[in-house]
Design goal:
Strand order of the largest sheet: 1-2
Mean pLDDT: 75
Order of helices and strands: HHHHHHHEE
Number of strands: 2
Radius of gyration: 24 Å
Low-confidence stretches: 6-21, 127-131
Number of helices: 7
Structural class: mainly alpha
């Protein structure tokens, strides 16, 4: 009976630890960010666990937020866009370090994988149906002829 109760209490404690670790920033950390000059709107986005954009990552880096906190937020929330090469160039020029950039790229890949399926583009006879670059040669157009 005592062992059973111990295991139950232990499992509840572990569940609490796991669930509280899902929060990306604590209240104290959010207050500290505000004191470091991170814009209030960005602190609110962090508090709401919303995805961060590349310019916001620059603001956090310039605000002195440790890379591990930024990476933790990216891993916990992910992103809702595909990162482009110009994004990466701007981030690196702004001083965003490798940990944040690498985490951003992983989360961007994860986001893209959610939209790319094997069925979305498939070979169909003389071309790839569903491929935006495939031109079947058929279409409707309006032309202007000069006489």
């Amino acid at each position: 009976m005592a062992l059973s109760r111990f295991l139950t209490i232990t499992s509840v404690c572990l569940a609490c630890i796991v669930l509280t670790s899902c929060a990306t920033f604590t209240r104290t950390e959010l207050q500290t960010l505000g004191q470091r000059g991170v814009p209030a709107q960005l602190v609110a986005r962090l508090d709401e666990r919303r995805p961060l954009t590349p310019p916001e990552l620059v603001d956090l880096t310039r605000g002195g937020v440790p890379d591990r906190y930024i990476a933790r937020h990216l891993e916990g929330r992910g992103v809702d866009y595909v990162v482009t090469r110009p994004d990466i160039v701007r981030l690196r020029k702004a001083g965003v370090r490798a940990l944040v950039v690498d985490t951003l790229l992983r989360e961007s890949d994860r986001f893209a994988a959610g939209y790319a399926t094997r069925e979305s583009v498939y070979y169909h006879g003389n071309g790839y149906e569903g491929d935006p670059w495939y031109d079947s040669g058929w279409g409707l157009g309006v032309g202007v002829a000069s006489f």
